[in-house]
Structures are given as C-alpha cells and as structure tokens.
Specification:
Layout: E1 2-5, H1 11-22, H2 37-50, E2 51-58, E3 61-69, E4 79-87, H3 96-110, E5 116-122, H4 126-134, E6 138-148, E7 154-163
Parallel strand pairs: 4-5
Antiparallel strand pairs: 1-2, 2-3, 3-4, 5-7, 6-7
Helix pairs in contact: 1-2
This protein binds coenzyme A (COA).
Coenzyme A is lined by residues 21, 27-28, 85-87, 92-98, 121, 125, 127-128, 130-131, 134.
Length: 164
C-alpha cells in the first residue's frame, strides 16, 4: 500500500471510491446520486489550494482518501475544516483509515498557524466516532435532527474537534 499526497490526476479514482462508499448508507452524508464528479473535483481543488489531500493506493486503485481544507475566512485561518475520510468497503478494517488519518494530522500540524481540526459524523456511525476519539478528537456538540435517512428517520450529527 502506498500513502501519498493526492493530485488532480486522482479525480477518476477518488470519484469511483466515493461512488462505492456512498452505496452503503450510514457513512458519508451524500446519497450515491449526490456523489458527482463536480462534488469530488471541488473538494479536491479546495484541499489542494488550501488544505490537505491524501490517498492510499492499493494494487493500482485508490483504496482510501482523506481531505480537509480551510474555509477561507481569516477568523478561521487556523482551522482545518470539512475533514472527510473514506476507505473502500473492500479494504476496511485493515488499518488504512488510521494510516491516512495520522498522515493528515502530521501534515496539518506542518501548516503554519493551524491549531484546530474539525469534522462531523452522524450519531449512528459508531465505528467512525470511536475511531476519531482514538485519534484524540473530542465530541464538542450535537446537531439534533440534522440527518434524515432514506427511511425518513432523523438522527443527530456530532461535531468533533482536536486542538494543538
Ligand atoms: C470509518 C472508516 C474511514 C474507517 O476506516 P478503516 O480503514 O476501516 O479503519 P481502520 O482499519 O484504520 O480502523 C481504525 C479504527 O476505527 C475503528 N473501527 C473501524 N472499523 C470498525 C468497525 N467495523 N467496528 C468498530 N470499530 C471500527 C476502530 O477503532 C479501529 O481501530 P482498531 O482496529 O485499532 O480497533 C471506514 O470504515 C469508512 O470509510 N466508512 C465509510 C465512510 C465513513 O463512514 N466515513 C466517515 C464519515 S464521518
């Protein structure tokens, strides 16, 4: 497995990965039809411009991806936001998520002035919440009734952050 910084050339591979992950409800917020090339291209560009974009490659395919970026306001210049991580269902629970997240934290700490990283995960995504806590993220709040799933059931989104 090769963990490296992503480039714009990874668009197709990352798009394919997000399509696959979004087929399983309960992980990323988007439904499969909401994962478009435009969406993927936008977060890739934002992360390349003012953030971090990392991929894990396995046997020539993108098996995992993580990104985060600054949202552009000066008051938030120390914050790496919109952190999203996905690992292909074919390769989950093999340690890829942990490796790429640790790489994001390592690279994030190198960005001058960055002292906070933040993300959001749905309350039912217990494996992700446990995973983020194991990396040092703390639960900071709860947005009640923020998610409505495909069965029209509501659930909360959990705000998590880590400061350095
Ligand atoms: C969450 C996700 C990124 C984890 O990636 P992964 O490569 O499977 O994770 P790792 O193998 O590195 O495991 C890291 C830790 O996550 C937790 N974890 C991962 N899968 C788990 C599971 N099925 N059940 C419980 N805990 C789990 C554990 O704490 C694990 O550490 P451990 O193996 O030392 O116990 C991956 O499951 C995924 O992409 N899920 C779908 C998309 C998603 O939910 N993204 C996050 C949106 S907020």
């Amino acid at each position: 497995m090769n963990i490296r910084k992503g480039t714009i050339e990874d668009l197709e591979g990352v798009y394919t990965l997000y399509k696959k992950v979004s087929k399983i409800e309960g992980g990323i917020a988007r439904f499969e039809d909401e994962v478009t090339k435009e969406y993927v291209e936008e977060f890739m560009k934002n992360s390349l411009d003012d953030g971090i974009f990392i991929v894990a490659e396995k046997d020539g395919t993108i098996a995992g991806e993580i990104h985060g970026y600054k949202i552009g306001l000066r008051v938030f210049d120390h914050v790496l936001s919109n952190i999203t991580i996905v690992v292909s269902p074919d390769f989950q629970r093999e340690g890829i998520g942990k490796k790429i997240f640790l790489k994001l934290i390592e690279e994030g700490k190198k960005i001058e002035g960055v002292s906070r990283m933040e993300l959001i995960a749905r309350e039912s995504n217990k494996k992700a919440l446990k995973f983020y806590e194991s990396l040092g993220f703390e639960i900071e709040g709860k947005m009640r009734q923020k998610i409505k799933n495909s069965k029209d059931e509501f659930e909360a989104d959990i705000i998590m952050g880590i400061i350095f």
